[in-house]
Fold this protein.
Amino acid sequence: MSFRAKSRNLKTEIIKNMKRILTVITIAIIAISCGQTEQKVTDVQTLQSPDGKLEMTFHLTEAGTPQYALTYEGQDIILPSDLGFEFRGVLKAQKINFEADGSISKTDREDCYSFAEGFVVDTVLVDSYYGTWNPVWGEEAEIVENYNEILVKLTQKSSDKKMDIRFRLFNDGLGFRYEFPYQKNLSYFVIKEELTQFAMAGDHTAWWIPGDYDTQEYNFTESRLTEIKDKMKDALCPNDSQTPYSQTGVQTSLQMRTDAGIYINIHEAALLDYPCMHLELDPKTLVFTSHLTPDAQGWKGRMQTPCNTPWRTIQVAPSATAQLASRLILNLNEPCALENTDWIKPVKYIGIWWEMITGKGSWNYTDDFASVQLGVTDYSKATPNGRHSANNEKVRRYIDFAAEHGFDQVLVEGWNEGWEDWANCNKDYVFDFVTPYPDFDIDALNKYAHSKGVRLMMHHETSSSVRNYERHLDQALELMDKYGYNSIKSGYVGDILPIGEHHYSQSLINHYMYVVKKAAEHKVMLNGHEMVRPTGLCRTYPNLIGSESARGTEYQAFGGTMPHHVTILPFTRLNGGPMDFTPGIFFMDLAQVTDGRNQSWVNSTLANQLALYVTMYSPLQMAADLPEHYAQNMDAFQFIKDVDIDWIQSKYLLAEPGEYVVIARQGKKNGQWFLGGVTDDNARTLDVPMNFLEPGKTYEATIYSDAADAHYKNNPRAYQIEKKTVSADDTLSIYAAPGGGFAISFVEKR
């Protein structure tokens, strides 16, 4: 009997016995599983998605190499692609070599060896699952998890070493991972290369950023796969820490579109204790091969059985909007690991940040010191520079503004000693995260904030000295406990210390999770900047409330970002979790803001900035501009005050990557709907259906949109606000200027 028939029979049996099933709810998950059953070992294993549209096949080649392939409604998505590894011959043993020139070198005593051939299939297990789960926060209140699964157990005959490959096929794509059971012949091992292939069936259009071990802060490039190599040089831009590795290497989440209009996305899920994966393209064969971030010695992973790799994911959708609706990445992560999540709350915040980013103010307290030694340098004798932004008077003004307009928290950067020589110095003992500058009274400011119903948000910039951060983390969290902080914005600017490690190597992946878990022990939410891109771990650890991990708003102050950037991020960066994009900029000419010191221009209209609160999903949303700028445009600022940040449901109405995105979301606060739409540097009028509204009801729509003469370069602040009565039967034609957009709030009319 085929897997499909077995699965169908099992599902039928379950339905017949539904009334007899005892429903067990654990961590808000309601699940129905068929349970694993053994399937007859054949040359080819076939797996279908629950709706039958996706089909995966697995087989061994004549050489015993595992291969898989994937089709969608009969169309090739992934052509037969190899699976496996190359391992280091021994864990560490090296020999000393005396060279003819008098130098001394070390080499491994044993050569690396292939773990990608010579396999036989021992057992094949099949399973099916249908369930729902409720995220602590998210784009919807309930997520369906429905897949069919095969687990192929393999043995390499020559070494008697075992490896399992688990495939899960959902209606929206495929996830698979390698699993290494406990075994005497393979207890510890070192990965030289992971050899997973993704063989493309055509020269697809792709939206990509360069493969890099240390940064994701690039503009996206749109090109055919075969054009990546030629466009790589122009795709690279400077960063405080960057390590591009190949002219044909790109990062995940990689979004593609076939000429037939099928949308394909390659990413990974549940990245734990393993290096981050990039993709290396062979432009002649159109085959991507996994490329793991190396450690300081060049190895790609140090493993101990039993262990698993992260899931390799291939999302497949018939439309761009269906791609945005996929929850494959979240579904491939484990359920929430925290016993109590009542303390995790979405956050709308403002911050003393933009004025330092633009150069209007400074993080450092003084200009007297070119070199700082914590605990030695005496700030009481220093002359204040007069530009330090994190001072008592200014923080109180921000607290007052937050309290007046209903914001939860105020981020304060530059509050602690050490900012005089924090960046690009390869400094180990850079911050202690507990000692404030003389003009920042941490006790008084926290009392003042709490008296206004506002919290301060802690800022922990590590300067990428991870050992130093771990050295101080307990003390820093205890300080937060003392003063009632419940959220951290962390940062990893610059090259990683210890030198030689990378932002996305295995040791840093483990560091990030160490911080997440430590924060959870103190009931603290974490927003990590310059961390590895998210892979859905916010399902398991929902105190990971956001991260940056892409080119955010700050780059608008560093020369600007292309307008199409915000139409691609929902397909790529947001695929694995929310982003702290920090929207809400109202004044685009930064020369005007900084008295000419910064000549950058924010490549966006004001209406586009409002729309980002809906299109750039995050339960952590910042109003990033200066309070005095909002005071000049309180009518537009009203949308930022009104818009929810946690959602019952989301509807993806119109979208094409690199062109436009229109999303409607229903808020948890009172069931109110909000809508946002953004476009690239082309003006367009979009016909937006209102069919997400409840039928039979009417709503007052407040529409914030670009004025007819708006343009992100020469007239970005031109906007209009109008009110219309609408229902689910209506379609609104809305103009979006170049680099523009629109935002709508809906209130039911009674």
Notes: The radius of gyration is 27 Å. The longest strand covers residues 119-133. The domain at 347-645 is CATH 3.20.20.70 (TIM Barrel). The CA atoms of residues 529 and 548 lie 5 Å apart.
